[in-house]
Amino acid sequence: MTTVPPTVDPPPRRPRTQQRSLGASLLDQVLAETLDPSYAQAAARKREAAAQQPEGARPPGSWLARHRGQLLVAATLLIAGLLVAVTYREAAAGAQGREQRREALVEDIQAESATTDQLADQVAELNRQVTRQRDEALAASAVGQRALEQLSAAEQATALTAVRGPGLEVVVGNADPASDTDPVGGSESVALAGLVQDRDLQQVVNALWASGAEAVSINGQRLGATTTIRQAGSAILVDFRPLTSPYRVQAIGDQETLYNRFLVSPGARYVADLSKRYGLKFTVGRDKDLSLPAGSAPELRSARPLEEPQPAPGAPTDPTPGG
Amino acid sequence: MIPVIGLAVGVVLGLVLDPSVPLWLQPYLPIAVVAALDAVFGGVRARFDRIFDAKVFVVSFVSNVVVAALIVFLGDQLGVGAQLSTAVVVVLGIRIFGNAAAIRRHLFRA
Asked: How far is the C-alpha of A78 from the C-alpha of B11, rounded, in Å?
């Protein structure tokens, strides 16, 4: 007598009668076969084995042997739990660590900028002291006084002293964003065209120098002979300090000459053209009393003593110890 | 009952011991968890279908985790790690949803 083992329902499958695209049939399969088919196969095998064995014959063995499967599953689930817990820990630690690092960096930045400010103040104070002592020392003699005059002329030319006087104020600013442009997803090219670029400011400054300006500053940054106007990303750096729009270019010089010559200069025409085309702000105004701060002193790159020191007689020419 | 205890012990052990995972293994942990989840849901559903088999469960669990991690590793080497991770998560996610729905039907008859 043979009993046909009851067949296990195979996982439901769509009939493959109609032609379907590869992607759709792949999705169908993924959606239909959510359960591993080997479960059904294993169950079928077990039923076959049970059908062949006589009824009621339980496999003998200890508790361990009978619960072997359960223990195996328990061990696997233990690993699963471990995996979940460890992953959770890692993710939590990552988020926490990022937050901590960010806060530490912000603190570092604030502390360091405070230190920088303090050091800059110290430099300014020391510079003042040096200048005062130098002036006192030089004023003592006639030669020194002549040197002092030369020095102050040179310092004025190199923008090392603060100056006051009548002059011109040229304001160049970014164009207003058009009312219909979206500040988030708006067209970038239009937005970029309305920004003041470093070469626009360079044109203005060069035109002012050419028109006879004696001292120029941008937003309180005095321009010397070697001061740079450069672009770094969207910021304009003047003497390596970032400035923001609107840019006030102040120039001291003979007011009327400066005004008349600047307005017809190619640089001014260039910026006026930009203003007409892209809406850059561009105004020129005369000011009776402008005060410009001193510029930063250029780095001392090379120096030599005025007189060659006489080598002491008899001194060893080679200072390295013999050995 | 014993398997559930095993799961609980695993979670507690992981949280208490907080074992450190080598750095190169860390990117594969989340995908391994998703794969393990798929195997566990499949096992629970098979149990409700009365066709659960311990050997099949263990083998499917281990192979799921290893294959998922391997696919992502291979993708990382080929420069398509993110896309392959997405593919693995999508396929396993669909299976988890399907099995969860089957479990729900068994539990609530709805």
From this structure: 7
Q: B50 contacts in A (CB within 8 Å)?
A: 43
- In 3D space, the residue among A60, A65, A54 whose CA is nearest the CA of residue B54 turns out to be A65
Spatial separation of the C-alpha atoms in residues A171 and A200, rounded to whole Å: 12
| B106's tokens | 């068994």
Instruction: Choose from A34, A66, A90, A96 for mutation: most chain B CBs within 10 A.
Output: A34
Cis amide prior to A183 (ω within 30 degrees): no
Q: Select the residue from B1, B4, B28, B33 to test the A interface by mutation, using most A Cβ atoms within 10 A.
A: B33
Between chains, do A83 and B32 touch, taking CB under 8 Å as contact?
yes
- The per-residue pLDDT for range B74-98, each reduced to its tens digit, is 988 898 888 888 988 988 898 898 8
Please write the tens of the pLDDT for every residue from B20-69.
888 888 888 888 899 999 998 988 888 888 888 888 889 989 998 999 88
> Residue A101, exposed/middle/buried by CB under 10 A (0-12, 13-18, 19+)?
exposed
Contact yes or no for A39 and B54 at CB 8 A = no
CB atoms within 10 A of CB A27: 14
| A7 contacts A48 by C-beta, under 8 angstroms | no
In angstroms, the first-to-last Cα distance of chain A is: 110
d(CA B54, CA A208): 88
Could you tell me whether strands A221-223 and A163-173 are parallel, antiparallel, or unpaired per DSSP bridges? unpaired
Strands A215-218 and A241-243: unpaired
Model-level pTM greater than 0.80? no
C-alpha separations of A265 from A36, A71, B101 in Å? 82, 91, 79
Residue B40: which of A40, A80, A90 has the nearest Cβ? A80
Nearest CA in chain A to B46: A39
Burial, A247: exposed, middle or buried (Cβ in 10 Å; 0-12, 13-18, 19+)? buried
Q: What is the CA radius of gyration of chain B?
A: 16
Taking an 8 Å cut-off on Cβ atoms, the answer to whether B30 and A8 are in contact is no
- The interface predicted TM-score of the complex, written ipTM, equals 0.86
